[in-house]
Amino acid sequence: MSASGGTKAIVAALGANLAIAVAKFVAFAFSGSSSMLAEGVHSIADSGNQGLLLLGGKKAKREATPEHPFGYGRERYIYGFLVSIVLFTIGGVFALYEGYEKIKHPHELEHWYWPVGVLIFAIIAEGFSFRTAIRESNEIRAELTWAQFVRRAKAPELPVVLLEDFGALVGLVLALGGVGMALLTGDGVWDGIGTICIGALLVLIALVLAAETKSLLLGEAADVDQVAKIREAIVDGETVTDLIHMRTLHLGPEELLVAAKIAVQHDDAAAEVARAIDAAEARIREAVPIARVIYLEPDILRTSSSSA
After folding, report:
1. What pLDDT sits at residue 286?
2. Strand 291-299 relative to strand 240-252: parallel, antiparallel, unpaired?
3. Measured between alpha carbons, how far is 305 from 300 in angstroms, rounded to an integer?
4. What span, in angstroms and rounded, lies between the C-alpha atoms of 94 and 149?
């Protein structure tokens, strides 16, 4: 599966969220709806998140240095984790607090047509952003289900944008429901209930994102298909007769480290072993292009220590 960052999806989401945030704050100013305030803060947080993802992608492209010899690819994971924190605190916790305050001190909505109109506009704008994220994801998702894609994607940007847009759409529907019930019943408590539901949803999404990006930060191996391709590419049956053991690690979404101990013939000369290693590295890079850092250690296969 490709590790494309989905910049187009990020930019589309950023543009949509900035426009929606302005509209939501205008609606809050005229109506006093806590759902609108929570949704406005949510959109501001989402805009900041997309900015963080773009910044992380730019920083990850820096060249390796003596201090950081494997480069800066993991910058994208760090900024993805920061997004989950921002979404949890500024988005989810703030919405929960606002909902609690609204339920504790309810008041009728004023100028109801402002929040309703803005919510409908926001649903349309978020729908376009979500569609862009789906299109970008479908190009690399292959046969994976959406849940598998979010769990296995090595590039954090698309899963983040997908979950943010999905959460935003569901949150807008919840906000519309809260505002609608408040209008129908004349009880502002419903607006607070809608706000609390939005906060709970954002906290849940933030926890999912935090768990996934934490796993990437700790270091994930190549996926099963890539491991199989590398194993097949290493052994040529002549100079490299077997694979004793192997470890893989993502240095970034698009850079893979491969370290392996390979079996060679006991009577091979040093020059022959060196040529065998060079050939094996070339085969690995051809099979899995993101395998850019490769360390192969030659050894003589001994059945009693084949797992050493």
Report:
1. 94
2. unpaired
3. 10
4. 29
